[in-house]
């Protein structure tokens, strides 16, 4: 049972991360094509705030404060009692609302439909973007080499 819970948490972490990073225009376009949004009640209205972003040198070094980032968050509950949360980069209250609705729907029977119509296309778009960015960076890669000089 603990394994199923860990798998469910990992899946939720993945789709929430995707929703947080996805460009607003792409998310709103796909959401606009989705069926009628469900009714909900706000638990926490969308609000804009800041968070401190921390980093680690090489991913293993001592943590340090990298800087601040603006985020928008909200929480809502569907009529069936399912709670959804939205945390997104920037100041878009609309994007945070849509992210919270998708999070809630992904925990219901509608999850298969939401995954097919929204999550999978967003994931594919983000992967294409990541691949293009990596290719662009690889094109500017410089190979350094050292010549050994003879020591007499």
Report on the architecture of this protein.
The protein is an alpha+beta fold. The chain has one domain. The chain contains 4 helices and 3 strands, in the order ααβββαα. It has a 3-stranded antiparallel β-sheet. A hairpin with a 6-residue loop joins strand 1 and strand 2. Helix 2 (24-33) runs antiparallel to helix 4. It is elongated. The model has no long low-confidence stretch (mean pLDDT 89).
Task: Summarize this structure briefly.
47% of the residues lie in helices and 26% in strands. It is α+β, with helices and mostly antiparallel strands and 152 residues long.
> What sort of overall outline do the alpha carbons produce when their principal axes are compared?
elongated
Q: Name the average pLDDT.
A: 89
How far do the termini sit from each other? 70 Å
Task: Give a quick account of the main beta sheet: strands, pairing sense, barrel closure.
Answer: 3 strands, antiparallel
User: Which blocks of ≥5 consecutive residues have pLDDT under 50?
Assistant: none
**Rg for CA atoms:** 21 Å
| Total count of strands | 3
Sheet-strand content, in percent, reads 25-35%
Multimeric status of the protein? single chain
Distinct helical segment count: 4
Helical fraction equals 40-55%
Number of domains: 1
SSE order = HHEEEHH
- For the largest beta sheet, what order do the strands appear in spatially? 1-2-3
Broad structural category: alpha+beta
């Amino acid at each position: 049972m603990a394994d199923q819970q860990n798998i469910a948490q990992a899946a939720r972490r993945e789709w929430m991360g995707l929703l947080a990073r996805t460009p607003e225009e792409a998310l709103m376009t796909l959401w606009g094509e989705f069926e009628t949004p469900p009714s909900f009640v706000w638990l926490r209205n969308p609000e804009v705030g800041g968070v401190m972003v921390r980093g680690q040198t090489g991913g293993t070094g001592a943590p340090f404060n990298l800087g601040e980032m603006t985020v928008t968050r909200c929480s809502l509950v569907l009529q069936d009692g399912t709670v959804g949360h939205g945390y997104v980069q920037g100041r878009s209250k609309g994007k945070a609302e849509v992210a919270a609705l998708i999070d809630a729907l992904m925990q219901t029977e509608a999850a298969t439909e939401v995954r097919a119509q929204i999550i999978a296309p967003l994931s594919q778009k983000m992967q294409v973007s990541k691949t293009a960015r990596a290719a662009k960076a690889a094109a500017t890669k410089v190979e350094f080499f050292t010549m050994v000089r003879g020591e007499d």
